[in-house]
Design goal:
alpha/beta, seven-stranded parallel β-sheet, five-stranded mixed β-sheet, 30 strands, elongated
Length: 954
Amino acid sequence: MTFIKDIARSLIDNHASFENVTVVFPNRRAGLFLTQAIGQIVEKPTRLPQILSMQDFVYRHSKLEQIETLEAVFQLFEVYKKYRPSEDTFDQFFFWGEMIIRDFEEIDQYLVNPKQLFTSIKSQKELDEQFYFLSDEEREAILKFWSTFLPEATKTQEAFLQTWKILLPVYEEFKKHLINQNQAYGGLIYREIAEQIGGTVIDPNEIIYFAGYNALTFAEEKIIKHYVHEAKAKIFWDIDDYYFRDKKQEAGFFLREYANDAVLGKTFPKEGSSRFKTKKTFQKTGVSLEVGQAKSLAESLALLTKDPDFQPEKTVIVLPKEHMLLPVLHSLPDEIAKINITMGYPLKDTPVFSLLESVLLLQYYRTDDLTGAKYYYKPIVELLNHPLLFSLEDERIKSLIKTIKKGNLIRLDGHDLTFEHPLLKTIFTKPDDAFDYLKSILHGLHDTWKDKGHELELEFIENFHGHISKLEEMMGSRAQELSYDFLIKLFRRLARSLKVPFTGEPLHGLQIMGILETRNLDFDNVFILNMNEDSWPAAAKKGSFIPYNVRKAFDLPVNDHHDAIYSYLFYRLLQRAKNVHFFHNTVSEFNVNGEVSRLVKQLEFESGYEIPHRILSNPIQTTPPKEIRIEKVPQIQRSLSRYLEGYVGVDQSRMTPSALSVYLDCSLKFYFKYVEKLYEPEEVQEEMDPMLFGNILHNSMETLYRNFLGKEPSKIVQPQDIFWIREGIETVINKEFIKHYGIKNVKKFKLEGRSIIAADILKKFINKILDFDEAYAPFKIIGLEAGTKEGYTIDFPINIEENQHSVRLKGIIDRLDIKEGIVRVIDYKTGRDSKSFGHIDDLFSKESRDAKAIFQVFFYAYLFESNSPLAFNALEPAIFNSKELFEKKFDWRVLQKEKKSPVVAIKEWRRYKKDFVDRLSELLHEVFDPEKPFEQTEDLKRCGYCTYKEICNR
């Protein structure tokens, strides 16, 4: 028999009429089941007893109206400002104002003397005087805490002490302020009733029963004890000898204390119960993913429904983690026709929350100037991709997102965000009032999705509308003062604490509930998901101005109390159950503990019950990933032939030194990128990555000298010209940033954040290069090719299967200049590129890629030498690399250091030409050789940042 039916039978046996009978449960839900139980036993119509929750029972004695936490924080701030004028804004105060309210709630629920608790701490002597009423052990606990602050406190500790000192006057005035308005938070109402209970007029005819209690606050305990002593109230305790008699069982901690109390002890039954030791079956299932638990649960339920004696009402699914509700609902077998949900679904996990969050971020990042509104791209993309908005104008949205990514548009003009749908128009407007703006969006969402089979989303929309309207009402005139930054924080905070209440017929169908909702209820079949540590028992909530040792000394709740409560709920739920199935996660991930709950382990080791354990998972793949080899079949050869002379097609291409460097790094990567053209997806580059940094440097240097050439027909750079070239650095860099970020209103452009740092570094690089140019001048610029599309080209002859072909090569050289017959082929490098090598073979090595930059500049030298009609005395490869640029003895020349030979600066590239061309010919022959497949590199370090590593499974 269930606990509720026991109560019903006892009431019926002891009362011919329920006219004056009142039953008080910890919550309202148990009362519904008591009503059903009485109806199943009585044989003729009868008047039901009055059934109340503890909160309803207490509040009926008070004239104070309870206010919500949010409203309490608003009113607390008004009091707080008197003691800390101008130190904190409401935005800053709000998020720890909630913590103060929680502390005040506990102080009042546990009837702590606030003056003694918040006494100003100045010295050990004062401690001894102020806390004379404490035992030696309790005083030692407080002294141990304060010893960390005294005698010499840090600034942080001093700030804590200052806050601690004002909490007493703030508490006292806040309490007075609320009572004057006939208002109170919950704990204050309980304290008021508990402290005045002695003067309460008790109806001598009322018969009161308290049922199903375990852990009482001191205020609740005082109230119940008063009615037991003065009104002969009785208590139905829901206990079992298994954890009640065993002093080691934390589940019975509070009950054993009450049993030893002079008043409450008389209400305990003389004979114990041993329901926990009745026949039960247990099962423990470990699943690697949370959604896997829902699927495994569905399989177990499907088997259970085949039992002819199966009754859905006697089956419960307990969800310690609320976000598991939807996966469970979607997984339930078709055989279960009726369900009842007794828990809330967090609003933060709904799609409406993510949409409204993005809307607030849209307005937070919005800026306005004379040309109109400017919007940050991230919330725009998030909104347009949102499932509740995307389908409204899918083609327009696809086009806009493509434009944002292709143009690298960090900020967009408001007039570019034009839509036909009224909801999208509403979103991309400048609101006069944030709350009206949010409500109008919610109205638009509701009108858009009603009558389209989206009942759940409509429920979420209506809940958000109600909470936002209530929040607006609470804030009143303060609403106009709040920034979007604060509204976003507040919105996220509220969404974490608010839940969508699901309603249904609680007495019919399979039951789904949270941990606390299981109080006083019993089921034959119990399924518990997420039976992991930190789920059940749940992780203790943190955040209090009252330190642990002080809480301990004043008997305020600590972790031990928390664990005892959850332990009791666990064993109480199992004591009358027949079949129990635990599901737990086997993998530790973000915010998920992969360890099975200690309560299950304790049950397994101490109860004597056998708990079979099974693990559901895919077998571990111990074999290494298969090697990927791409043979050059005819189709691939056709794709590769677009780099050959004579190829006709829209995808005709030329081979660059960068492509050949990729081939030497990893020929498979070359295949993905240059044969199959699997380019990286276009993404908006908001941060300055190394490639972008290098591009801006190259383009800036080219623009500076191109501007100079436009004014100097002779193309000769004199030392004094460098001064004027430097004057254009900032303007040129700004233009490159404007180009990168796709900014249309050039006049209003201003560098911000990390871009300022990047621009400053670029200026230093450019100025340093110009320092060397100034020292080298005069020289004549003969080529600035960074801005051209084709650069230098050549058709390189190779043999493929005894047939003569030519590979189309090209290269874009950063700069070419000449002085006294010496031509410099200049390449700018912003990475950690080396300028020294040992042998030409090093440039083509697949094992070591340290000579990438040298390979590239030699390639450029070959292209120039092969194309230039200019007569010159020497061809000098030059690398301005950031790795060495700021060293005192910097030399732009490439250095050769062979074994047992001195270091040689290369002043004439042509003496290396033959060896370079021979090795280049071998490399190109290998690239196009039909017998040579594309293969993965053996150096796994190169795979770390490779775009294609997921394909290779590396």
